[in-house]
Design a protein that fits this description.
The chain is mainly α. It contains 4 helices and 4 strands; from the N terminus they run ααββββαα. It has one domain: Orthogonal Bundle (Non-ribosomal Peptide Synthetase Peptidyl Carrier Protein, Chain A), CATH 1.10.1200. A two-stranded antiparallel ribbon has the order 1-4. A two-stranded antiparallel sheet has the order 2-3. Helix 2 crosses helix 3. It starts with a helix and ends with a helix. 3% of the residues are buried.
Amino acid sequence: MGMLNEFKTFAMRGNVVDLAVGVVIGGAFGGIVTSLVGDLIMPLVGILTGGVDFSKAAIVLKEGIAASADGKVAAVAPVLFGYGKFIQTVINFIIVAWAIFMLVKAMNTLKRKEAVAPPPAPPGPSAEEKLLTEIRDLLKKT
């Protein structure tokens, strides 16, 4: 049971749980960014570039075959150089990197504000401490 307890201790540490939450949120954030780029930004870029749909933009390197020599129908997909999907992925990356940069920048700004705030003044002596100080002072006089 020693290994099981050790694993439980490892898995329940704050860093591991924080990392798991970050991965789950990151995956969801990736889906949001993919939709943002694919459904909102790329159509606008397509309009600006004369109606080009980047997700389908590709160069045909080798044509596909629709029928074989013996008369049987056999479909072979064409070989494509899909640069449009690459452009879309690069735009996804730039948006994700920008969003993370802005998040880190905001967190750093908050940390700087916390560091600049002066620490609270230490509390004064309690009533008991004041009384003991007076007793001490009276004893010194005698």
